[in-house]
Amino acid sequence: DQPVEHYRSSTPKSGSLYERAAAVMPGGDTRSVTYHDPYPSFVASGSGCRLRTEDGETLLDFLNNYTQSVLGHAPPAVVEAVTERFERGNGFGAPTTEAVALAERLVDRVPSVEQVRFANSGTEATMNAIRGAMAYTGNETILKIEGGYHGTHDTVEVAVDATGREHQGIPRDVEDRVLTTPFNDPEALKEAFATAGDDIACFILEPLMGVAGGLPADESFLHTARDLTEDHGVPLVFDEVMTFRLGYGGAQERYGVTPDLTAFGKFIGGGLPVGAFGGREDIMSVFHPHEGVADHSGTFNANPATMAGGIATLDALDEAAITDLNRLGDRLRAGVREVAADHDHPLRVTGDGSMFQLHLTDETVTDWASSAAGTEAFEDLFLAMRNRGVFMAPRGMGNLSTPMTDAEVDTFLETLDAALDALPE
Ligand code: PLP
Fold first, then answer.
1. What number of other Cβ atoms are within 10 A of residue 324's Cβ?
2. CB-based contacts of 55, cutoff 8 Å, min separation 6
3. Is the pLDDT of residue 24 over 90?
4. In percent, how much of the chain has pLDDT > 70?
5. Closest-CA residue to 373 (of 37, 67, 40, 147)
6. Which catalytic reaction applies to this protein (predicted)?
């Protein structure tokens, strides 16, 4: 049985929904990452760590909407908090207590964040963190990591396509203002600062590269970044949209490096659209509505139901929950290495804590380019696992949620073993 035929025959309803979708949405979807060949399956509902597809299948969810559903799907405390808040009206053109309470939680958890503002996506979070850094420094050049993904606004869409394809629709002069440097390469970083340090508005990076390979930064690289940015008066921006789940105070706590600004997103809105950015008070003050020099607004910023969902989620994701998630992640990575040793396919795993990525490649995966090497081949393995009831990103990324236990990790490993057996050599 070929994986694609098997998939088509078990997902006829998703197939016809996709035909309907493709008639009214280009490519049949509105997210580039959710598509895979021959068509993605449609999900009807989620509960705990399981999804129910429109075709009536149950899938173990190791994607969690790209790290968003850290508590799994429809966690009762979050559903209750969001519903209760929504029933009292939602969106008033005036602040609510929930925004203050969620801001206080972020400030309490993350010492580098003295002040914070809310937005509606991780894209808006990084966009405004960068804007704040530009307003604060008066500089317009941004330094980012090759392949670093920070959402879809113009500045950060530079150097994100491993195929070298240029994304159209972005003014070409944006590229002139964006410098890139390779991941985990302190010498190249020193060089970049020696050449352009005094013109840089900020250096933005993920402490663990998420979609660019599941690659943790070396702590020495982060320390070099901290020292160089400090020496040049350049704000260091951590994109913790995904990595906040790695520690109670985010990856910055786990890796022991303090940025000036941080971008948040994903689970901090309890499953509703959200972003937030925060950091040093003197930088964040550029956004003061009357006294500041930069503008930030939005109809849905600090939406009350979103804030209520975020509060309930952060309260559930305590130190113990994070420790447990990270332990399960270690177990999964160790298990993958054992499975890989039993097969001829060149399988590797990267990641840290509750985030992981599988790579079908012979090369050691150290950066964006080596990570991209195996992603196309991975789609076959993805489909073979999907056909056996385990869902993850078509390009190999995965992560864990709190309803998962050792049993779900075992199922993942057994499924991986069986899927590799079924893959053509
Ligand atoms: N930054 C990182 C590290 C991300 O992984 C993402 C999304 O996956 C974003 C920013 C953008 O967030 P959003 O999709 O909410 O705009």
1. 15
2. 10, 11, 12, 13, 14, 41, 42
3. yes
4. 100
5. 147
6. (S)-4-amino-5-oxopentanoate = 5-aminolevulinate
Q: What is the pLDDT of residues 25-62, one digit of tens each?
A: 999 999 988 899 999 999 999 999 999 999 999 999 99
- Ligand 1 atom closest to the Cα of residue 33 is 8
Strand partners, 399: 355
Active site residue 239: yes
- As a whole number of angstroms, the distance between CA 234 and CA 200 comes to 6
Task: Give, using CA atoms, the residue closest to atom 1 of ligand 1.
Answer: 150
Among 363, 364, 351, 362, residue whose Cα is nearest residue 396: 351
Q: How far apart are CA 142 and CA 136, in angstroms?
A: 13
Amino acid at 295: D
CA of 221 to the centre of ligand 1 (A): 22
Helix (H) or strand (E) segment spanning residue 419:
helix 406-422
pTM (global) more than 0.90: yes
Active-site residue 248, yes or no? no
Do 3-70+318-422 and 76-316 agree at the fold level?
no
CATH code given to domain 76-316? 3.40.640.10
Architecture of domain 3-70+318-422: Alpha-Beta Complex (3.90)
DSSP designation for 33: G
Beta-bridge mates of residue 43: 53
* Burial of 319 per CB tally in 10 Å (0-12, 13-18, 19+): exposed
Going by C-beta distance under 8 Å and a sequence separation of 6 or more, which residues neighbour residue 385?
391, 392, 415, 416, 419
- What is the 2 CA–ligand 1 centroid distance (Å)? 34
Q: Of all helices (H) and strands (E), which one includes residue 119?
A: strand 115-119
- Confidence tier at 1 by pLDDT (50, 70, 90): low
Local structure of residue 48 (DSSP, 8 states): B
**The tokens of 331 are what?**
């177990």
| Residue ranges per structural domain of the chain | 3-70+318-422, 76-316
Radius of gyration, alpha carbons of the chain: 21
The rounded distance, in Å, linking the Cα atoms of 259 and 217 is 14
What are the structure tokens assigned to 66, written together? 């790209």
The predicted complex's ipTM stands at: 0.99
The candidate with the shortest Cα–Cα distance to 34, out of 56, 65, 5, is: 65
First-residue to last-residue Cα distance in the chain: 15
Mark whether 13 is an active-site residue.
Answer: no
Mapped onto helix, strand or coil, the DSSP state of residue 145 is: strand
